[in-house]
Fold this sequence. Notes:
The complex is a heterodimer.
Chain A: H1 5-32, H2 40-58, H3 60-84, H4 90-110, E1 117-119, H5 136-153, H6 155-165, H7 167-172, H8 177-203, E2 206-208, H9 215-225, H10 230-252, H11 259-263, H12 265-277
Antiparallel strand pairs in A: 1-2
Chain B: E1 12-20, E2 26-35, E3 40-45, H1 51-58, E4 66-71, E5 74-76, H2 81-86, E6 89-92, H3 104-109, H4 120-131, H5 146-159, E7 164-168, H6 176-191, E8 195-200, H7 203-209, E9 212-217, E10 220-226, H8 232-240, E11 258-268, E12 274-284, E13 288-292, H9 299-306, E14 312-319, E15 322-323, H10 329-335, E16 337-340, H11 344-348, H12 355-359, H13 379-392, H14 409-421, E17 427-431, H15 439-454, E18 458-462, H16 466-472, E19 475-480, E20 483-488, H17 495-502
Parallel strand pairs in B: 3-8, 3-9, 6-7, 7-8, 13-18, 13-19, 16-17, 17-18
Antiparallel strand pairs in B: 1-2, 1-4, 4-5, 9-10, 11-12, 11-14, 14-15, 19-20
Helix pairs in contact in B: 14-15
The complex binds adenosine-5'-diphosphate and magnesium ion.
Amino acid sequence: MPESAALIFAVGVLNAMTPILLTAVGEIIAERAGVVNIGLEGIIMIGAMAATMAAEGFGPLAGLLAGIGVGALLGLLHAVLTAYLKGDHVIPGIGVNTLALGLVPFMLIVYWGSAGQHTVPRYAQVPKIAGYISPMPFIAILIAVAAWYILFKTPTGLKLRSVGENPVAADTVGILVERTQAVAVVVGAALAGLAGAFMSIDWLGVLTKEIAAGRGFIALALVVFSNWNPLWALGGALLFGTFDSLSQWLKVLHTGIPDTLINTLPYVVTLIAVAGVLGRVQPPRHAGIPYRRE
Amino acid sequence: MAAPETGREPVVSMRDIVKIYPDGTVALRGVNLDIYPGEVLGLLGENGAGKTTLMKILAGFLKPTSGYILLRGRRVVWHSAAEALRHGIGMVHQHLSLVPVFTAYENIILGLPSRMLAGARQRIEKLMEETGLEVPLDEVVELLSFGEQQRVEILRMLFRNVDVLILDEPTTNLTPNETETLFNAIRKLKQQGKSIVFITHKLREVLEITDRIVVMRRGRVVGELPRAMADPRLLARMMVGREVLMRVEKPPAKPGEVVLRVENLWVKRDIGTWGVRGVSFEIRAGEIFGIAGVEGNGQAELVEAITGLRRVERGKIYFLGRDVTNLGPAELYRMGMAHVPEDRRSTGLIMDMNVVENSILGLHRWERFLRNKWGMLNWAAAEEHAKELVKKYEIAAPGLYSPVKYLSGGNQQKLLLGREISKNPKLIVAAQPTRGLDVAATEYVRRMLVALRNQGHAVLLVSSDTDEVMQLSDRIAVMYRGRFVVVTRPEEVTEEKLGLYMGGIEQA
Ligand SMILES: Nc1ncnc2c1ncn2[C@@H]1O[C@H](COP(=O)(O)OP(=O)(O)O)[C@@H](O)[C@H]1O
Ligand SMILES: [Mg+2]
């Protein structure tokens, strides 16, 4: 089967786009409901790990579901701490990120007996269309479009956004503030977990101890860059994906530029784009602030 | 207690309501209240009387410590405001609770189940027509005026078909026109059989719009009477618990030399358009010069230009004979200009600092408050000064070292005025000095201003309260769209006439 370079490049872009997109869209949903979750990096990592375990035992579908499930559980923990117990939004995220930094290398050693990385066997990987095209990027795009539609075109979205903008107003008209926030955070974190699963048992086919490689944080930046709009996040994730792919090619082409420098390319470009639009965006007014009744 | 018509059943009764806040404040000490269908009930009381607390309990925002509510004779317990709303009790707060980035329409329908959304737009439009509460439905509410935002909140309640509509100090931020629109809507709603609770501390309003008046003081209902039997003096006495001077005594003015002269002043607003467009006047020692006008007609910019907080684009300001155009506030301060700013909470006082600290703000370079030449503060002297102010101006504070945010608005204003006066200024610029104050504090502050004038200070008073300007001023200017449309004396003009000038309807 002839595979043109352009097609391979395009697939590379789509793959690189996917984890960023899923994670950013998830966080947009959470922040639109007023809950900030900076533990995305950790959720991606733990999601990737759980997915690998489940996939090796029960196949790739179980792997994806495990990623979603673990993400949802970590999201639920965050929701309990922030929405119900009215705790700080930042600290639990730091906790999850730190936990992941220890847990994943630890499990790599005790569960897989390898220091640093573990290759996912073929049978546990998500099957590819035509041998090299994963269905996941398309699912991710669908999720982004659906999220946009729900957030901005349906009464459900209106309710969710009202909670993130002015929970008092929402409360007054009978919207269940805490429950809305909890659902949003759980869904959002589940998407980050799915992003992790995609990375380990689909795109890369390997679980490493630094598998997220900062994508959780880039996604956080992208949430801002996109002005909390999933469609703009799609654009931003494509930008990141393009430069991520490009950097892989630059490495192969032996340009003489050090690899470490090339690796920073997608991050730098994305951050410049973010910086370029900062100040023109309008965050949800009540994002990150615990909602307490008097 | 007397029902307006015997035989009619109240729609809501509150019985023996006690409310103790978690911090121990006893806000309500056993309150009984009946609300009848088709009446406008005025809930009158000074700040802190417990009006808001009582109505928040009725609308489900707070739980009573004890006591209960009867809705059409049946006992109810609210678990949330939403539950009260579903049962037909809606409250529009002093601080509106809208989603700023949503449109008016979205705010009105927010939270309604989908089945109620069919034809919602048409029904809202019909509602707007019936009540005269018109708003642009597709405009984002943060771009609407306060009055329009308030209408959105009222429409939201009406769209949910409330029987009891509670309005908490609804006219505080409204223009006279907007107030009129609101009053007309209230009358129409009443005809439809709805009950309206109108919370206020303004006597004039309660006499204009209500059918029955309940007066509260310190967590108790201290009186109830039909409007026909009420008069301002009686109501004021019930509210305050003692006789109140409705008029401030004022001996004839003895104007001295010119203290401030403003010549053809032009000042821009933040957004770059002209706020003040060629204003000239002078103020003499021993007189109060009052500037009336609906807010937003350039008064704020004028005050800021005079006090050195905003650039003068054209024209001149002379203070004590010296050209002070575009001189900084610090220099003006030293020369003897005192400023009681419009927004005391953010510019006049520092809310988190205590009474002692606030009492020497701006005075802290005085030798009296310095311990040595390196500028160390002498806190004992500062405390002494704060004590003097508290005593002299009857400031009720929990303690000299408690943050001023715990003082009531009236006491904050007294502290601020007292501090400014202690500088023995030549000119006092007072912007909206009694806004948000209760009757007693308002009376006190007005008396202070007149006393200052009698002692030979010059006072520039800027106020959107026509009554206040009429009572206090020796000369009055009305500002409209950046200009003085008239400069006159209180004895040469009526309040009605002043209103016409303020609305730009009449020109001198
Ligand atoms: N959240 C609160 N916590 C503690 N005390 C409060 C609170 N809200 C109001 N109060 C106190 O309860 C009393 C009644 O206040 P409020 O009902 O707001 O009076 P009003 O509306 O008549 O001005 C005041 O002494 C006020 O300081
Ligand atoms: Mg109140």
